Every structure is written in C-alpha cells, then in structure tokens.
Amino acid sequence: MSEIPDTVLLEERAALAMNAVTGLPDDDMGGIPYFSADLLARPAVLRHGDWDWGSSHGRLLDACVLARQMTGQETWRKAEEGFRQRLIGFFGDDGLSYRPARPEVGWAANANLIDQRAVLLALTTRFVSDGDPEARKLADRHVAALKRIAIKERDVWFYPASEYTPAGWPSPNAIALHLAPDPASFSGRLIMPLLRYHQATGNEDALELCGWFARLIVHKSGVYGEDGSFNAARAYRSGHFHTRLGTLEGLARYAAHTGDHELTAFVRRAYDWALGQATAFGWTPGDLADQRYEHESCSLVDLIGTGTTLARSGHTAYWGVVERFLRNHLVESQLLDLSWVESAQDTSGDEPGWTTHVRVGERVLGAFAGYGAPNDYVCDVELGRGHTADVQACCVGSGVRGLFWGWNSIVTADDRVTRVNLLLTRATRSVTVLSHLPHEGRVDLDVHEDLPELRLRVPDWAGYAKVRVSRPSGDHDGAEAGVWAPDGYLSIPAPRRGERVTVTFPVPETTSTEVAAEREYQVRWRGDDVIGISPEGTARPMYSGRKVHPTAPRRDYTLARPEREWAW
C-alpha cells in the first residue's frame, strides 16, 4: 500500500464495473444474463432480450479477462468461467455461434452476424491473455465458418442477411439481387477481432476476410460518404454510430497492419467527421435519425479505440481526444450512485425468464450508461424514441474495454523510447505515472529501470514556456529547445532506476458551447476535465459533483503492475 494522488484511476473503475458484469446473470435462466435495465421504473426492472446469447456473453467474457489484466484480481473467475462455458455451448457443429429458438416469442434458432463479432472478440482475448487452447480451437473453426458462409464474387465478399440459419441463408433471392444489409454491422465490425486473431495466431483465413471486408466497406458499400460522413439511409440503420465507429476501428488497425496510408486517410476523414457530431467531452448521437438524441456508451468506446489506434500509428494529436473522452464521458457514464433507484423487496412482480425487480440497482452498480444524455445518465427526452434502456449489457462490457484501451495506452514503449501518452495514473514495469490532474498541473514519473529516453506528452493547452521538469540531476523549463523531441513530446534523456521526474505546467480554466441532441450546453473545463455543465441533468445528473482542490487529495492504494503486458 502506498500513497497516490486521488484522481481518476482506470483500473479501479474496471473493478467497479465488474459488479455489474457479475450481477447480470440470471440464476433462473442458468446464468444467462439480463440485457437491459429501466432504472426510472418504480420499482426498477431488469429485462432479458434477444441479445442475451452470443452478443452479451462475448462482451461480458471479454470484460472479465480485460479487467483481470488491469487489476490483477481473480475475484470474478467464477463468473468468467460461467460466461465461457455457456459461450462454448452456443456453438453449432458448423462452427458458428447460435441463438437458441424461443418459440413462445417467435424466435427461431439463428447465427446472428452481430453475435459472431462479440464471440470472436472474447475468444481472441482469452487466447491472447491465457493462451487458452480451447479458445483457439473454437476460434479457428469459427473463422473458417465465417469464410465459408460469405458470398464470394470476383470483386466482393458479403453476407446477404443479418442471420444465418441451420438451413443456410434465409433468402436466395437476396443473394441473387445483391441485397446485402448493413455491411458495417455484419462485416465491417468483424475486422477488428479478425485482425487481432490473425496477429495472435497467424490464421490466414482471418486476414483474408479482413481484406475482403475492408474492400466491401470502402469501395462497394456506400456506408461512408466521400467526406467521411455516415450514410443516413434507413437500410443502413440510419447511420448507426456504434456500427460505423466500430468498423472504423477495424479499418484503422488493418491500415496500420498493411501499411495502407490511403486507408488510414479514409479512416481519419470519417473519424474527424464523427468527432464533429460528438461533443468535445465524448457524448455521441446514437444515429442520424430517431436515436440521435441518445448516447450509447459502446459508440464512445469505439471512438476511444479508433483514436488510440490512429495515435499509435503516428497521428499523435488524437491522444488529446482520447484523454478527454476517458476523463469525462466514459467515467462519468458509470453508475456509482443508487440514491435515485428504487428496487423491489420480493419477487412478487417478477416474470421468471423475462424480468426481475429485485436488487436491480445493486446488481447494475458500476454499469456504463446504455442510452444517456449529455448531462444525465438517463436519456428521457420528448423527441426521438423517448426513454428506453438505462443499462445495456453491451455497454457494460464495452465500457470495460474502453477503460482497457485507455489504460493500455497510458505508457507505450519500444527498444529506444518509453512514451507517456495519457496523463493518467498507472504502474508499469518500467515507470509509474502519478497524475495530479485536474487539481494541479503535475505528473510524477517514478522510474523503475534504466531507460534510454522517456517522453511525456504535454497537452496543447499547457503551452510550453511554463512547463518545468524537475530531476535529481537538475531542473529544466519548456523554453529550452533541447527539452522537446521531434514528435512534440517532452524529452527526458536517460532516466535512471529509482529516479523521480516531476513535470509541472499551468492548467487553464475555459468554457465552451457544445451542441448535442439539438440542444446547447455550456461547459466549464479545467484542462481536459469538465468541471460543470449547464443545464444540469435531472434523473442522475452528470458532472455536477466534480470538485477541484488547490492540491490533489491523497489516498492509500496499491497500483497493479502486470507481470506480462499484452495489448489489443
């Protein structure tokens, strides 16, 4: 146990989120998780849905493994094993993950294409983390099945429907007429886990699918406009942000893997266009139609993932975007207060197999907003779809992945340079970053091994003239040209093991006007942190409780330092 600044700690937020991950399974359904929660209902209610199977299990299993890496904790191993065993049980003999038939509501057994992405995501994370041979065996069969069922023509591969059935594709006519539904939803979002699986195992089918799906998206589909805008056609889910941004994340990774600079430029156009639809603190519209009033945490996580990928590819200005999103809307969209949620005391109002009202708030504590407003955990507007779901299992799992992407990117290194990209607290084998932001413009770097060079990204708003570097060997200031590296980072040459380097800089307070859901918000900033929004929310207001102190408060906490680092 040691004393650290009491500031945003991504690994701690991941541990808090695991309460919701482990609270969603329904014992009456053999552990199948509830999908959504309505926290405004009196009493609040958890509901099952058609996403309970491969989609929810894949995302929640992925979250278990990522949180375990971030925190070093084994607390939720039992829940992780339950998700894993049930996920395995969804696989058919053909290698695809199936939703079981539920004839009471008219659902036939099918392999939903959106589910396949979540399934492969979880299997890949298990293999990268643990070298799980069963995960690799299942994933190899799964990738082979995804290749086998694709409709293959000379210049394009595609899926002609959202669901594959045990009897094959449901509509031969759709194949003949090239009536491919939303390519971003069913093909584009597969690129990210397919590529990571190829990188982890060398699976060539996975890489081949990435190439064909990238071609489909960029050259054939019309999902994105020439200016990067999202196609708002209803047939393409009205420009649905989660699927568009998730596709961009995969394309950004594929471009980096293949060295395709033209594809990177394509991704940047679309990403920059999307940033123009979002707020600077990370709220995104759900789509360009009726869902544009509600924010899905999944979309924000896609923005974080794409931003980190672009930044790691050399477009370092996106680190500032990622940090704003992590510091603000991702952590602010996490449910930490239950004072406004009312749960039932008994099961008299439950509908077993479908709903429960018991301990709803306690079970979803730590969840990320399913559909939220810019200033409120709840979206309850008169326009669009009105109030829908406050918690969704997909956003619970995705929220942990967003935390992991940020945590994993705080410090990166190669043989020559160790870089601190995000000014957030984290311990690694080589250096521990202790951030005092937003209270003070101060970052302490505790060096654990001799390094050739350590670099720190200083935010643009901090300027350079008043930047100070304090080392045992002497102090330096930002006005000295020699303290800056060619990539714009602050350069700290040859730090030694046991040395503490302290970097300080001014933190300005500014205001901005943000437009979201056709409404203006006045936002107060301190550096990259939002310290207030007007108007305030009503159900569970966000940002209104943030406090800034002259010096950062302190706390006792032992930071996790993984024995083995791995990236996604």
Describe the overall structure.
- This protein is α+β, with helices and mostly antiparallel strands and 568 residues long.
- The chain is built from 15 helices and 25 strands.
- 36% of the residues lie in helices and 16% in strands.
- Strands 14-15-16-21-18-19 form a 6-stranded antiparallel beta sheet, with no helix packed on it. Strands 10-5-4-11 form a 4-stranded antiparallel beta sheet. A 4-stranded mixed beta sheet has the order 12-13-17-20.
- Helix 2 packs parallel to helix 4 and helix 13 packs across helix 15 (393-409).
- It is globular, with a radius of gyration of 23 Å.
Question: In a few lines, what is going on in this structure?
Answer:
With 568 residues, the chain is of the alpha+beta class. It has helices at 10-23, 54-71, 77-89, 113-130, 133-149, 172-176, 183-186, 191-201, 204-221, 241-258, 261-277, 297-312, 318-332, 360-364, 393-409, and strands spanning 2-5, 25-26, 32-33, 36-38, 45-47, 111-112, 151-152, 157-158, 163-164, 355-356, 391-392, 411-413, 418-420, 426-427, 431-435, 442-447, 453-456, 468-471, 474-477, 490-493, 500-504, 509-516, 519-526, 529-534, 554-557. It has 15 helices and 25 strands.
For this entry, give a set of tags.
alpha+beta, four-stranded antiparallel sheet, 6-hairpin_glycosidase_sf, six-stranded antiparallel sheet, 36% helix, 568 residues, globular, 15 helices, 16% strand, Beta-L-arabinofuranosidase
